[in-house]
Design a protein that fits this description.
single chain; 186 residues; alpha/beta; Rossmann fold; 5-stranded parallel β-sheet; 59% helix
Length: 186
């Protein structure tokens, strides 16, 4: 299965992605991890992304698109993958769909994990990552809100969006996701 996992920073996407990839036997493709890795390694893409990530701004579409294209072309993605962090905008979602249509490998599902903003702020404040200081967190959540609604509407229109309540234990959230996956398979 080819799945896009959508949710604000702090929604638990990383936790759920790990469970989903184990269940489905597909790789977890986190653009955030890809970008942080590129920054650590000092690659050209990492150097271009650094000023955006350090100030909480979104990395330009063409740069992220290039990273994703290279990654989904690798052999371990032949039977599917879980994309996390891309697409972030309706334009990126359309670009991704075009790319996948050219390869005759359409997206199966877009899973949106919903969590109230106050809970997100609390979760992120306790995470302690370098890119999680309070001002950066607030900026990232604002950008997420602005961009996600049109993207969710796009996937809703295509019939691939599944909205999941992200409150509760990781096990409860995963059970909700699994229910939606099972429904999509039939």
């Amino acid at each position: 299965m080819r799945i896009v996992l959508i949710g604000p920073p702090g929604a638990g996407k990383g936790t759920q992605a790990k469970r989903l990839t184990e269940l489905l036997g597909v790789p977890h493709l986190s653009t955030g991890d890809m970008l942080r890795d590129a920054m650590r390694k000092g690659t050209e893409a990492g150097q271009q992304a650094a000023p955006f990530m350090k100030t909480g701004r979104l990395v330009p579409d063409d740069l992220v698109h290039q990273l994703v294209l290279e990654r989904v072309a690798q052999a371990d993605c032949a039977n599917g993958y879980l994309l996390d962090g891309f697409p972030r905008t309706a334009a990126q979602a359309i670009m991704l769909d075009k790319m996948l249509a050219e390869r005759k490998t359409p997206l199966d599902l877009a899973v949106l994990i919903q969590v109230p903003k106050d809970v997100l702020l609390e979760r992120l404040a306790g995470r302690g990552r370098q890119d999680d200081d309070e001002l950066v967190i607030v900026k990232r959540l604002e950008q997420y809100d602005e961009l996600t609604h049109p993207m969710a509407a796009y996937y809703q229109g295509r019939g691939t969006l599944r909205e999941i309540d992200g409150l509760g234990s990781p096990e409860e959230v995963f059970a909700r996701i699994e229910t939606e996956l099972n429904g999509a398979r039939h």
